[in-house]
Amino acid sequence: MNHRLHASHLTLGYDHKIIADDLSVAILDGAFTVIVGPNACGKSTLLRALCRLLKPSTGEVFLDGKSKSISRFATKALARELGLLPQTSIAPDSITVAALVSRGRYPHQSLLKQWTRADQQAVEEAMVATNINQLASCSVDELSGGQRQRVWVAMVLAQQTTLLLLDEPTTYLDIAHQIDLLDLLRQLNQERGQTMIAVLHDLNHACRYADHIIAMRDGQIVAQGKPAEIITAELVEQVFGMPCMIIDDPLSHSPLVIPRGRFHCGSAQ
Predict the structure, then answer these.
(1) What sections of the protein cross the membrane (predicted)?
(2) CATH of the domain at 257
(3) What are the residues facing 213 on neighbouring strands?
(4) Model pTM greater than 0.70?
(5) Using CA atoms, how far apart are residues 99 and 104, in angstroms rounded to an integer?
(6) How far is Cα 157 from Cα 84, in angstroms, rounded to an integer?
(7) Are residues 210 and 131 in the same domain?
(8) Together in a domain, 59 and 168
(9) Residue 214 host element (H or E)
(10) Is there a contact between 78 and 162 (Cβ–Cβ < 8 Å)?
(11) Residues 154 and 166 in one domain
(12) CB 109 within 8 A of CB 74
């Protein structure tokens, strides 16, 4: 498969502390790629580097060819190619849903090109796609956590990028809203052909929704590939230090990770 976005030999860190070294990865076009691994393994650090929120100490991230480092893109030009949903998003007080989603059109604005019918159409389509069009006049402050997350997704969709990066998008959501959001992202990926790259904590969610998994530990990529090809009990123990068994998910037929733990349900009381 082709890949527009790839990273070559990255060294990444914060305040002179190296998190990942000699990291290379290619993101498959049109696929839903999920990055998994234990806490502090470098998942979000890698995602931040892929969208230029973090500058590598060494190495480069390329978009559309080895000659096009993302470091050379103008800010608005890059925002027309890459959309980002960060871990924590804070909306201005009392802003309406429609106004927040409209901010996704900022990369398409300039002194000579103000708001157009095409911008309005992009916002309306994004709200319909995320099923929040009926909330357009509501204040974001009034919404539930699941609704707010859909609004942020709509804002990123309004950018109309072909690459969408999501950093732990299901954090703080209950299980029903997690599944609802992942279903939405998978639907957008399949119907629009958008390339999705997400950091997820739940390995079973990753197995069910991802086309491609990147498993990390200690700042290194341990394995990558289709869930059915790489997710084994041995890999899970290597990456997470968790003994488990792998069975077939009866609904998705993807790998289903069953932790062994120290205690087992069903024992006599």
Answers:
(1) none
(2) 3.40.50.300
(3) 34, 225
(4) yes
(5) 9
(6) 10
(7) no
(8) yes
(9) strand 212-217
(10) no
(11) no
(12) no
Of the candidates 185, 191, 188, 190, the residue with the CA atom closest to the CA atom of residue 205: 185
Q: What φ, ψ does residue 59 adopt, rounded to 5°?
A: 90, 175
Residue appearing with tokens 């204040």 = 139
Single-letter code of the amino acid located at 165: L
List, in order, residues 6 or more apart from 168 with CB less than 8 Å away: 44, 87, 199, 200, 201
- Please give the residue range of the domain that contains residue 107: 92-160
Q: Which residue type does 178 have?
A: Q
* Residue type, position 29, single letter: D
Angle at 237 between CA 236 and CA 240, to 5 degrees: 75
Residue 244: both structure tokens together: 């488990």
Residue 185 and residue 200 in one domain: yes
Dihedral sign from CA coordinates of 40, 41, 45, 47: negative
- In tens, the pLDDT along 194-214 reads 999 999 999 999 999 999 999
Q: Are 207 and 254 in contact (CB under 8 A)?
A: yes
In which residue are the tokens 């992202």 written? 185
Give the integer Cα–Cα distance in Å for 135 and 43. Answer: 33
pLDDT single digits (tens) 210-240: 999 999 999 999 999 999 999 999 999 999 9
Residue 86 domain-assigned (yes or no)? no
